[in-house]
Specification:
Layout: H1 5-10, H2 24-38, E1 46-48, E2 59-61, H3 62-72
Helix pairs in contact: 2-3
Amino acid sequence: MQLNSTQVGIMDRSWMLERNKFSTKHIQGVRSFLDLAQQHTDSNGRIRCPGKNCNNCYFKQIVDVRRDLFHYGFVENYTQWIHHGEPFQSDGADHFSNSYDADNSGNQVED
């Protein structure tokens, strides 16, 4: 399933709060996120990993990002996917909670 930024903007993200990372709802949510992110890979086929341990600072292959997301979950408050194809919205709009703090996106490191 291919998503565009309009579809992403209205996507339900409550699955990100699921404690059970292997629930059907969470699995489908991660798949939808990765479908979007895969459209925004770098020249080596990598994306920033939004996993808790990587915090969007490391570039990884999709398969490695998938593994991290199921094992560790998403970094807290990364609900506006600005590093994965979603346009930044400074109007204070939330996707379900406080938006990702863009001030924390400073120095980026490649893995």
